[in-house]
Structure formats: structure tokens, C-alpha cells
């Protein structure tokens, strides 16, 4: 069982990309292989980014008022936890932290890495593993729209789900102190849930993730990437398997097949 992660947090007013900053750190000679513990949990929080990005290098509009945070973990420091488990545990942790700021909103996980509310995307999570390097580093990037105004014209994937923010959902007035508090909440939940996963309680975390899935038991279309317009499967979304793979039931044959990656879409008018 892990004994807790010492999250050292660096706060910057602005940067290009917190994920890029941590990737540069990992690739530098600053972290010695015999001193990984000193950087396990190292986190950078920015109040704005000039080159924020998500999956497929999509632009993440990162103006003032959002949380932009990346955390460095080493898989060898997470006994009993693999990358798929870390991905699901991270999503549950981020959702739980955000719920405290939007207690009256129903939050969902849009597989594999978005947090949504009211049919809008309020958070994106980007997981990047760097195998072959000492300790097997993983960078966890989290972006949350807190009180920022998102320019949809900059987004290539707003046709999947439009963006939203916590301030819009709750009609609350948030400030930068709320961003730092949310950052701490995310890290606390991540620490707590990673300890649970390491102690053999991952099944409960996985069940919580499955219970929060957007579009579950509804008809979805799966794409490698939505912008390309090439559907790879269509059918009823019945959940995830133990590997975190998407399970889709064919409408005609009722056969269930797992899919390890992709993006799902449903008509916005029918979304939760």
C-alpha cells in the first residue's frame, strides 16, 4: 500500500503548457534515476496557458479563470496500479473534487477523459505515459473551466460537446483562490484513491467510474477521431470491461465487443 504522495506544487501565472513543461523536465537531466521520489507528485498549476492542448493536439482554450494543472507520477512508485487503473482512478478523483464546487449538478465521465455537466464539457484530462524512461513516468494533465470564457471558434471538437464552466453551471462567483483550492482538492482525492487502489479497493473505484458514464445504455457511434468522420462501430454502450475498454453491443447480433480507444458521439439533443 502506498503511504501517501507528497505533492509539491509550483504555481505560475502563465506558461505555454503545463504538460509540456513537465515533459521537458522528465527529459532533462534534473531528475536522477536514484531520486525519483523527490519528483513523484510534482505538480505545476498555471492560471493561464498560451499553448494548451488536449488529445490529438487539439487546442484547449486556456485563458484566465481556468485551472490548468499537470502532475508527474512514476508507475514504479504505485504498487498494484497499472496505467489503465491510474486513468480511471484519476477521472473518479477529478470528478469527486469538482462535485464539491457544483453539488447540485449531475457530473458524468464522457469516455475516456472528459468530465461533463448539463451536456457541456467542463473538464478534460490528458494522460501521457513515457515508457522506457526511469520509473515509467506518467504526466496527468487536468484542465477545468472554472470562471473563464471559452472561445468556441478556437475549438476543433466543439461539435462533440460544447464547453461549459462551473460559474455558468452554478451561478457562483469564483476567483483564483477557488482555483488553488480546487487544485488541492484534486490532488487530495487522487492521493486518497490511489491509496485505495493500491490496497485492493480498485473494484469500488471502477464501479464508481462505471456509474458515472455519460451515454451508458444508449446508442452511440465510435470514431477513431470524430473530425475524420469515419465510424468504427455503432451500438448500445453497456460500460467498460476490467481493462477500461469500451463495450458496445451490436444492435443486430447483440454481440458485445471491446474497443480500447476512440471517441464516442451522440446527438446533442439526446444527451444527458
TrEMBL record:
- Going by the record, the broad EC class of this enzyme is ligase
The residues covered by the BPL/LPL catalytic domain are: 10-198
Stored Pfam families: BPL_C, BPL_LplA_LipB
Molecular functions per Gene Ontology: biotin--[biotin carboxyl-carrier protein] ligase activity
Which EC number(s) does the record attach to this protein?
6.3.4.15
Which Gene Ontology cellular-component terms appear in the entry?
cytoplasm
**What UniProt keywords apply to this chain's record, in alphabetical order?**
Biotin, Ligase
Q: Please name the Gene3D superfamilies in this protein's record.
A: Bira Bifunctional Protein, Domain 2
Query: Cross-referenced SUPFAM superfamilies, in alphabetical order?
Result: Class II aaRS and biotin synthetases (SSF55681)
- Write the protein's name: biotin--[biotin carboxyl-carrier protein] ligase
Amino acid at each position: 500500500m502506498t503511504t501517501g504522495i507528497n505533492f509539491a506544487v509550483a504555481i505560475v501565472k502563465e506558461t505555454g503548457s503545463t504538460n509540456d513543461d513537465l515533459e521537458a523536465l522528465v527529459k532533462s537531466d534534473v531528475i536522477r534515476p536514484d531520486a525519483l521520489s523527490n519528483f513523484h507528485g510534482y505538480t505545476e498549476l498555471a492560471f493561464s496557458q498560451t499553448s494548451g492542448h488536449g488529445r490529438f493536439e487539439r487546442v484547449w482554450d486556456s485563458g484566465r479563470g481556468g485551472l490548468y494543472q499537470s502532475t508527474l507520477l512514476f508507475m514504479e512508485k504505485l504498487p498494484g496500479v497499472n496505467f489503465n487503473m491510474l486513468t480511471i482512478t484519476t477521472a473518479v478523483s477529478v470528478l469527486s473534487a469538482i462535485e464539491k464546487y457544483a453539488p447540485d449538478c449531475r457530473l458524468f465521465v464522457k469516455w475516456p477523459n472528459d468530465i461533463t455537466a448539463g451536456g457541456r464539457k467542463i473538464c478534460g484530462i490528458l494522460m501521457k505515459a513515457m515508457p522506457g524512461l526511469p520509473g515509467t513516468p506518467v504526466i496527468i494533465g487536468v484542465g477545468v473551466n472554472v470562471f473563464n470564457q471559452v472561445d468556441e471558434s478556437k475549438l476543433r471538437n466543439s461539435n462533440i460537446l460544447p464547453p461549459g464552466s462551473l460559474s455558468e453551471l452554478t451561478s457562483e462567483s469564483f476567483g483564483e483562490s477557488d482555483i488553488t483550492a480546487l487544485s488541492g482538492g484534486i490532488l487530495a482525492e487522487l492521493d486518497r484513491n490511489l491509496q485505495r487502489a493500491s490496497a485492493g479497493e480498485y473494484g469500488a473505484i471502477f464501479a464508481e467510474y462505471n456509474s458515472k458514464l455519460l451515454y451508458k445504455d444508449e446508442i452511440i457511434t465510435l470514431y477513431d477521431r470524430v473530425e475524420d468522420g469515419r465510424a468504427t462501430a455503432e451500438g448500445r454502450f453497456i460500460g467498460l470491461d476490467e481493462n477500461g475498454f469500451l463495450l458496445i453491443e451490436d444492435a443486430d447480433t447483440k454481440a458485445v465487443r471491446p474497443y480500447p480507444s476512440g471517441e464516442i458521439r451522440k446527438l446533442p439533443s439526446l444527451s444527458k
